[in-house]
Each structure stands twice: as C-alpha cells, then as structure tokens.
Amino acid sequence: MSLTGFLTVSAILFSLGMFCILSRRNAIAVLLGIELILNASGLNFAAFNFYNGQGAMDGQIFTLFIIVLAAVEATVAFAIVLAVFQTRRNIQLDSMTDLKG
Amino acid sequence: MSIEDLIYYLFIALTVVPAFITVMTQSLVRAAFSLLLTLVGVAGLYVLLGADFLAIAQLLIYVGGILVLVLFAIMFTRRIEDIGYRQWGARRATAAIVLGVLFALSFLPVIAHEWTQIPGERQPTVARIGELFLSDYLLPFEIISILLLAALAGAVMIVRKETKE
C-alpha cells in the first residue's frame, strides 16, 4: 500500500477511460469513459491527501466536489443524449455529422 | 503480506478488472454494470485512504445516482441494431497499442518520482469535512448548490418536448 500504487491505479483507470471515449460509437459508452476518468482524478486527489501526513482534508473536499460535478455533468449529458434520441431515434456517434464541414 | 495489503490488492482488482470489461465489451448493459463494480472498488480504495465520508458519498452519488441514471438512459435509448459492429479491427488494435505506449511514457515519470510519502492516520472525517464546508470552502459549497439547481432545471428543459399551443 503506497502512494505509487494508488497513482498507478489512477493512471490505469484514466487510460482505460480515455480509450473508451475514443473508440466507442455509442454516446452512452463515451459517457461511461468520462465517468472512469473522473473517478481516476478523484482517486488521485484522495491518495495525495492521505499521504500528505499533515492531517489536511483539502484533497477529500476536492474529491467531493469532483463527485458532485460528475453527477451534474452526467445529468446534463444524458438529457442531451435523450433529446438527440427523440429526434434522430439513434445515438450512434458516426451518424451525427450535421455540423461537419 | 498483512490483511491490509490483501484488502488493498483485492480492491485494486475490483477496480481495474471491471474497468477493462467496461472498455472491451460490446454490450452496453454489461459495460454499465461492470462500471458499477469499478465504482464500488474505488469506494473501497477511498476507505483505505482514510476517506470514510468520501467512500459513502461515492456509493450514494455515483452508484446510487449516476449509475441508475446511466441504466435509465440505456433503457430509453435501446435499439435492436446495436450489434453487428466489428469491434476489433487492426486499426482499433493499433490505436490501443499507441495509446498504451503514450500513456505509459507520460505516466511513468509521475509514478517513478520519489514522492515524500507520510501516511496519515485514519480518523473519522465527517465532522471535519462539515466544518471545512462551512468555513473555508463556503463559497464553493454555495456555488455548487446553485450549479445543481441550474443543472436540474436545464436537464428538464432539454428533454421536455415542445407542446404546440
């Protein structure tokens, strides 16, 4: 149990989240990748907060804000996905090229 | 290897393995449920880091809120034709390898750095976090409540169908 262990886990989660964002066609799958990335960053903050050794809580408060912001962003993102589905009846990102060119 | 190390490795496995499944699987429902396992694993890691309130908040908000929202969204946007997509072509595999090498190169200096690690002691954090929210972090606290209200109203407004008067 060490700081580098937690940093490695956070780096792996971030990489997996980034790969999920870049390689999935479904909009909801992209949002799952975004949640992975936010979790990785929150884990980073909490790990640095624990291994600070001064009893400070700032890292944990920041992680709480990250969690709340992830909830906010997920709400708005899924509202947008649902609205797009209402008109287009599909959420495959390949077909959303209206703003292209 | 002490019990604490064993639990640490268990939670790491619970976090990383379902994350792989989330990325690799073709089924969206399976991806959502394995993300649930990842979030529970991260909550366990928060407990190991002495952040007990954070772990419970993670379980309540992420698993109980966001993931339920994800499952609802999946339910509402299901279509039959979400299959038949060739998942692992050569292009995607090379993208994965390039990304892996890039990230390894960018994360290795951070991980190999000699961080000064002084493990703190694990104490109950709820009272201290409450004090901080009402003293040092009062402004972000109020702003985030306004942000939550705005997101709530905005999300409802985005999804609402226009009724012709």
Chain-wise SSE layout:
The complex is a heterodimer of chains A (101) and B (165).
Chain A: H1 3-23, H2 27-50, H3 58-88
Helix pairs in contact in A: 1-2, 2-3
Chain B: H1 3-24, H2 28-48, H3 52-76, H4 90-112, H5 126-134, H6 138-159
Helix pairs in contact in B: 1-2, 2-3
If you had to describe this structure to a student in words, what would you say it looks like?
The complex is a heterodimer of chains A (101) and B (165). Chain A is an all-alpha fold. Chain A is built from three helices and no strands. In chain A, α1 packs antiparallel against α2 (27-50) and α2 runs antiparallel to α3 (58-88). Chain A is elongated. Chain A starts with a helix and ends in a 13-residue tail after the last helix. The model of chain A has no long low-confidence stretch (mean pLDDT 91). Chain B has six helices and no strands. The mean pLDDT of chain B is 88. Helix content of chain B is 74%, strand content 0%. Chain B starts with a helix and ends in a 6-residue tail after the last helix. Chain B has 165 residues and is mostly helical. Chains A and B meet through α1, α2 and α3 of A and α1, α2, α3, α4 and α5 of B.
